[in-house]
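Support request, please re-run this one:
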Amino acid sequence: MTMDDNDDGLAMPSRMPKPTEIFSTVHTEFGHCANLDYRYVSKHVEDAPVLPHVDQAAPYYILLSTYISYLILIVLGHIRDAFGKRFYPESYKHLLPSENGAPLNSDFDSFYTRRLKTRMDECFSQPVTGVAGRTILLLDRYSPDYNHTQLLTGGQTRALNISSYNYLGFAQSSGGCADAVETAIREHGVSSCGSRLEGGTMDLHLLAESLVARFVGQEDALISSMGFATNSTYIPALVGKGCLVISDELNHASIRFGTRLSGAHVRMFKHNNMRSLEKLLREVISQGQPKTHRPWKKILVIVEGLFSMEGTLVDLPRLVQLKKRYKFSIWLDEAHSIGALGPHGRGVCDYFGIPPKSIDLLMGTFTKSFGAAGGYIAGDKTLIDRLRIRGHSGPYAESMAPPVLTQIVASMASIMSVRDSLDVDVYDYPGPAPKRSLPTWLALPRALADGSEGRSRLRRLAFNSRYLHQGLIKLGFITYGHPASPIVPLLLFNPGGSGFNLIVLLGSRSQTGKMCIFHNLMKEREIPIIVVVVAYPATPLVTSRVRFCVSAAHTKEDIDTILRACDEVGDILDLKHGIPRGERWRIEDVCARAVELANTT
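Re-run finished. Output below.
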């Protein structure tokens, strides 16, 4: 068993492993947990309805105090700008015209950044060192000038990490995948300039693309060195003028950017609302193109499998039914769901038991569940070949480096498992990977090669996700998202302080500054917890939130720690406005009945 030299609560497990329990991981990076009760299979219950996204409203006094805070912020901010430009022009010269020309940005455009975000910058972009595993090592800092600059103190703080997209816990500096990456560096180096085939592609690229296609259950796949660019550069290669793109209103910025570049006509439907989508489909198909009313060349519906801000799962069964009726194409963005959902970790198709080939294009990234970088698109071979030629990432982007490709191959193969006797040309989705489809120099440890560790990671992630989600609800918090989602948003409503906390002076229970206070209270606990807080413009104005990102690396005790911290901080900040089924539970009951909560349907 490998351990850190430290003996604090984060470095050492709460219960020392038995002699029969052998762990090859460092506890700070991937928590030791041999209790098989803390496992769950991520799978949709057959014939059960898909849970819709429900916006739960806060009490009126919460909303009122939030709007008043914004009003105070805006009024005082503009007053300060007016006086500052007159009496302190040096501090505002970047907003004033000069002999060299106009200002780079206006005071109106930068108002939100200067007057709100800057006040909360202590919550964002925190410097870290090491891997973003179960724990993360923060570099301590302070600001002498109200967050305009940040200075390092030289100290470090190890915190429980509930803020990273490390869904399966592959962000490790040791273990089978890390050893495979070291081997790849010895074989190919760190750049993508060696062992190339024609067209700037290595044999490792071809192996990785073949493995990705097998993993997601499609004929072919291409890989890109950047996840954002996978959407923004390949959507324009698929649709253009005379085509229609129908997009979920909460789709990621990369999808919005790609559709704008394409020149296609764009319409949006209400978030994950299939009735809204069907109504829109009837309208656009009957009306055709604007002005000419000609039929659309293509109709492409773009949705995400798991929405990163809401934690919502797409209603894929209903979407596939609509596709059969209205004959459109589907682009499914699985950046967050691939590897994190389904009994075999193959994403939302696997979760709902839907054949992947019923989806025209599957897009995903390697930056979350696989601990690597880049993205992929998988689909029909003819279509993928077209995208290789027409997509801008193909000829213009830098190809992936061998260590990154190896991390993808090793982590993906460990989820699939590897078998010696399988035929490379025959593949039964969602089966194991043939050993001959992997690089000859790649040797995975037995626990990875036989898929046992991959299955354990998938089931630990499913348990942790459901336990945290249901536990927060039972404690009385308002949360968004599907119980199976590893993204668990907890609603705060009010983002930050206004500079003149009128609400506190009026005797309210501190509705302002909740983002910063929540972040700091969690970080300053006996066992520090690092969280992600999100506000406008990433969310609507009054639905600021904490976004917990659960990992298979977390133990049940880690989730207990997070729930206990939320329970205490929620009482301090008046955050418990949810209405759970039945009465609210005490935190002791939540922790004691974790298995029952995780198995709640």
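The chain has 19 helices and 18 strands. The CA atoms of residues 1 and 90 lie 60 Å apart.
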